[in-house]
Amino acid sequence: MSRLNEANTILAKEIIARYPKARSATIPLLHLSQQQNGYVTEEAMAHVAELVGATPAEVQGTATFYEMFKFRPVGKYLVNICGTMSCQLMGSEALLHHAEEVLGVKPGGTTADGMFTLEHAECQAACTEAPNMQVNYRHCHRMTNEAFDQLIADLREGKRDADIPAHGTLARIRQQIPAEKAVGPVSPDDPARPVWTPAPEVK
Amino acid sequence: MSDEINVTVNGVPHVARKGQLVIEAAADAGEYIPRFCYHERMSSVGKCRMCLVECDTGRGPAVTVSCMATVAPDMKIDTQSPTVKRMQEGVLELLLANHPLDCPVCDKGGECPLQDQAFSHGPGESRFVEEKRHFEKPIPISDLVFLDRERCILCDRCTRFADEVAGDPLIHFTSRGNSTHIATFPDEPFASYFSGNTVQICPVGALTAKPYRFKARPWDLQQEESTCTTCSVGCRVVVQSSRDEVLRYMGVDSEPVNHGWLCDRGRFSFEATKSAERVLQPLVREGDALAPAAWNVALAEAARLIGEAKAAAGAGSIAVLGGARGTNEDAFAWARLAHEVIGTTNVYAQMGDGLPVGLLGLDRATIDDAANAATVVLLSPDIKEELPVLYLRLRAAAEQRRTKIIELTPKRTGMTPYAWRHVGYQPGTQVAAVDGLLADADVAAQLATGPVVVVAGRANLAESTATTVQALRRLLDAVPGATVLPAFRRGNVVGALQVGMRPGKGGLDTRGTLQAAADGKIECLVLVGSDPLADFPDHSLATRALAGARRIIAVDTFLSASAAKADVVLAASAFAEKAGTHTNLEGRVTSLARKVTPAGVNRADWMIAAELALELGSDLGYGTVEDITADIAAKVDGYAAATPAAIAADSDGVLTAVPGAIDPMNHVEAVIGERNAYDFRLVVSRVLYDQAEGTAHSPSLAHLARGSAVHLHPLDLDRVTSTAGARVKVSTASASVVFTAVADDSVLRGTAWVPFNQPGPNVGELIDCFAAVTDVRIENV
Ligand code: SF4
Ligand code: SF4
Ligand code: FES
Ligand code: FES
Fold this sequence. Notes:
- The structure holds two protein chains of two kinds.
- Helix content of chain A is about 35%, strand content about 10%.
- Chain A has helices at about 5-15, 25-35, 40-50, 55-65, 85-90, 90-105, 145-155; strands spanning about 75-80, 115-120, 135, 140.
- A four-stranded mixed beta sheet of chain A has the order 2-1-3-4, with helices on one face.
- In chain A, about 35% of the residues are buried.
- By secondary structure, chain B is of the alpha/beta class.
- Chain B folds into five domains: about 5-35 and about 50-75; about 80-220, Alpha-Beta Plaits; about 285-355 and about 490-575 and about 600-630, Rossmann fold (3-Layer(aba) Sandwich), CATH 3.40.50.740; about 355-485, Dimethylsulfoxide Reductase, domain 2, CATH 3.40.228; about 680-780, Barwin-like endoglucanases (Beta Barrel), CATH 2.40.40.
- Chain B is about 25% helix and about 20% strand.
- Chain B is built from 24 helices and 34 strands.
- In chain B, the strands form eight sheets. Chain B has a seven-stranded mixed beta sheet with strand order 15-14-25-24-23-16-17, sandwiched between helices. A six-stranded mixed barrel of chain B has the order 29-33-30-32-31-34.
- The longest helix of chain B has 19 residues, at about 295-315.
- Chain B is globular and about 90 Å long.
- The interface of A and B includes residues 42 and 46 of A.
- The structure holds iron/sulfur cluster (2 copies) and FE2/S2 (inorganic) cluster (2 copies).
- The site of one iron/sulfur cluster (SF4) has 13 residues of chain B, from helix 4.
- The site of one iron/sulfur cluster has 13 residues of chain B, from helix 4.
């Protein structure tokens, strides 16, 4: 079942109602689908297209721009090791090699047990804490080989479940916007449109 | 005038228009700025950077993207400065860095903007030695179009066209960034009715169309401007051929008509012209079979049959049906032959599938009028299916917020998403629908805001025209000043009707003729490129008529179902094999070119008419097509301006006046019977790809016909059968046909929709052309 499930479909409709145009919800809904399935499936893209009134090709075109959307299954934990300047100077290359050895996969690969996907990443904006890496986009600063081994062991044992949820979950607490505060669909011809939507172009 | 802006282009003063793009202003001043992504009929996106120029508005020269920037007062535009030259070379070097340069095997080679501009503006050599990107190539992105991603320069023309113009954004940039490429969604092909246009506007050979791939090199092609006669929009095209074979059509930008676009059916149906199944010589019946005959034999035989019929039961026992497929000249010659030489009044160009000819007597709107009106009321069939480029024009009008569209149709259509108001009506209730609409205060206010154009046509073949005519009258009475764009569908049907292929005083229309034939009262039935067995909605009547007509003469390009029953078949030349003129639905007369030699010994319809007239002892007096064009201008009401010289002088053609000779439609009362609550009311209409001759004989299009099926609203389908795709029996009091049932939420509850003239069971068997509406029972089998 890789379309959005019933609960998530309801949530999706709620999210859509927050925007003046349904298509504005494309990215949040893709995240929702990634949270549900661990990655963005074709069926989910088609479902999102249906929900926001776009074609699947448009949703795919938008989704594939973003590095954080995965279109093939990834491990429960996505390990991103920064390889940009500061981290490289501070030994990220050695860290990457170590990670390859420990996990037994090359960047882009997923361990056979489906736990870890290793990736070589660009700057994670924490250069002062180099070498830096992320697990499911949660920062791990000033990494050493030992710290890495510990981290992997903890993750395997579920000790980090509290702060590092499975891949796809951006935040455990969802934004709650009461329905009456949602913008809802706005016709471009409506003279009382919200001030932030641009005036329709009259040719 | 305040709209004028003074600029200089390469030092030469020029007066530009306010708001004009620099690239356009320079073009007006005679400076062509190289470009890839810019297209005058689409919005600017500034993707390719080929159009960089330097503009100085008083603060010194600044590099400017000329397809994005508008002119400013006293702007100095420099399109040739050393900086510009360097930038152009840089852009080209980068574009070519990943370009495969497989020009020798590329269809675009020879007419390729990239090739041409690399030659004229490029650096001449490249510093790139690295490996280029590679993709599997080419990949089909639809049944008709192939994509080579290595050649693509990411100009966004095809994707912009799909989204902005066609409204089918089924192709999109994917994996934007280093590996940006065009893609469809997996298993969802670019099945747009307009996909061929992307091939035409792609500035490289990345998109190619199946019918033309590897068929010719551009320098071998000869071309001639002409008009597409596949439907009555009359898009302007160039017909391109090589070695006497038509190979391709390209759209021509005609401001009042098609803006350069074509639909795929029009673009690719040229394949039928060279079909191996064409009739290549006259045929005369010998017992059960049709045997080849010489022209003199066949014409003499045809004349003999006509003479015999006249002698036996008078000219009133002869009927001539058709003429919509040919040129104005064909129709005029045949109209004269029928009315003057044979002396019958039973003449008609429509096949019982349009509104009455009186539609042409109403105040006429042009396509431009409709696309600029404040309100367009569609009391018509699905124009996306029947008049595709008219759909593009009206869709653009709605999208650009010029026009509000009010749609009254028996099912949702391709236009519905763009309609301001959509009223779905049950067949037979059009008048109530119009009344309801007019009672709506918002609608009344909207109709009062400016010009109103009503697009009127036959939305349902399983229903008489009476209620639609009545509803149209109601609408026109309520909205004074409203004009009508007649949504007649078939190629040159408006031309044929206007130049005289319509009943004379007391004459029969097609339904009347077929009824008379079925009753044994027609001695000789002449089919001029018409096929009642395929096109007349009431199939049973058509069958009885063709069996009942004592003699049949068919003038046709193919041995159609009806022509196969003829006693004499006169082999006609097809589109691109004959010159002449065409009248589109707004009454615009444009030229048709003869580009290739007719197949076999075939002749144009008008020649056949002229020869037949001679056989019958009269001379129509025509030696050339121009003779007839001139004669039409001299004799036919409204055509005075459409002289051969005037038509030849203007690619956009000549707009004719509304013929006063055609009586506008009068009130007709329709009686709709009581309706059984268990019954479904039948809606039958055409879709773009059907079994029409031009489509069925074009290999690239033939398989696109979707097939016959009964479409029901999903909730209704549940009522009838539990399984979608089940076989159901659809019955009227007198006939029943078994169809596959399909769930379709564009169909109104309580109605059943069946597409017409599709492969599979024939829905025509359910249609009674004398009934006001058709109610059917649907049961699971
Ligand atoms: S396929 Fe052709 S039209 Fe489409 S983006 Fe590529 S180069 Fe442009
Ligand atoms: S819209 Fe009609 S006239 Fe235009 S290309 Fe299509 S079939 Fe031909
Ligand atoms: S370089 Fe690694 S976080 Fe910035
Ligand atoms: S033509 Fe101006 S950027 Fe492409």
